[in-house]
Amino acid sequence: MGAHISIPMYQRAVKQRYRLVGLKCSNCGQIIFPPKAGCKSCGALDNFTEVQLSGRGKIYSYTVIAGAGAPPEFSEEAAYRGAYPVVLVELEEGPRIIAQLTEPVPAEIKIGMPVEMVLRQIYTEEDVIRYGYKFKVLEGEK
Fold first, then answer.
1. 140 pLDDT exceeds 80?
2. Cα(46)–Cα(39) distance, integer angstroms
3. What is the distance, to the nearest Å, from the Cα of residue 38 to the centroid of all Cα atoms in its chain?
4. What are the ChsH2 C-terminal OB-fold domain coordinates in residue numbering (predicted)?
5. Which end of the chain is more exposed for a tag (fewer CB within 10 A), N or C?
6. Domain locations in the chain as residue ranges
7. Architecture of the domain whose range is 55-142
8. How confident is the model at residue 2 (pLDDT cuts 50, 70, 90)?
9. How confident is the model at residue 88 (pLDDT cuts 50, 70, 90)?
10. Contact indicator for 96, 90 with CB cutoff of 8 Å
11. How far apart are the first and last CA of the chain?
12. Distances, alpha carbon 55 to alpha carbons 29, 91, 104, 110, in Å
């Protein structure tokens, strides 16, 4: 059993979860992802426009999660794969986001490796498959 996310809450996050849609602050130009109620740069509470993020970036940091350290919703994956990498990606537009790295995982993950967002299965809850973004290392960069 994984972390419960209600259907309405899940549906509200579809734009960010499937298409990497963020917000751009019209006051200072800061790109906000995932979307928040206010701009952390200038404090504006409204005046945002939606912006489509490219899904491209570089590995800023990473860790490898082993079975015992996996959150409950990823226990099935941890049992199947053993350990799996989770990366902090700095997107071309500036925001940093955390996601799993897809297979095939390079033998050696390096800070600065270029990556690209892909849509993949994240986990299953109550027989419902939850999809979202993961990142893959760009070809020729492994």
1. no
2. 8
3. 20
4. 50-120
5. N
6. 55-142
7. Beta Barrel (2.40)
8. very low
9. very high
10. yes
11. 34
12. 19, 7, 19, 19
pLDDT tens digits, 35-73? 888 999 999 998 999 999 999 999 999 988 876 655 666
Residue 8 has pLDDT above 80, yes or no: no
Q: Which two tokens stand for residue 3?
A: 């972390």
Q: Tokens 């986990």 map to which residue?
A: 123
Q: What is the DSSP string of 59-116?
A: EEEEEEE-GGGS-GGGHHHHHHHSSEEEEEEEETTS-EEEEEBPSSPPSS--TT-EEE
∠ CA 40-43-47, rounded to 5°: 105
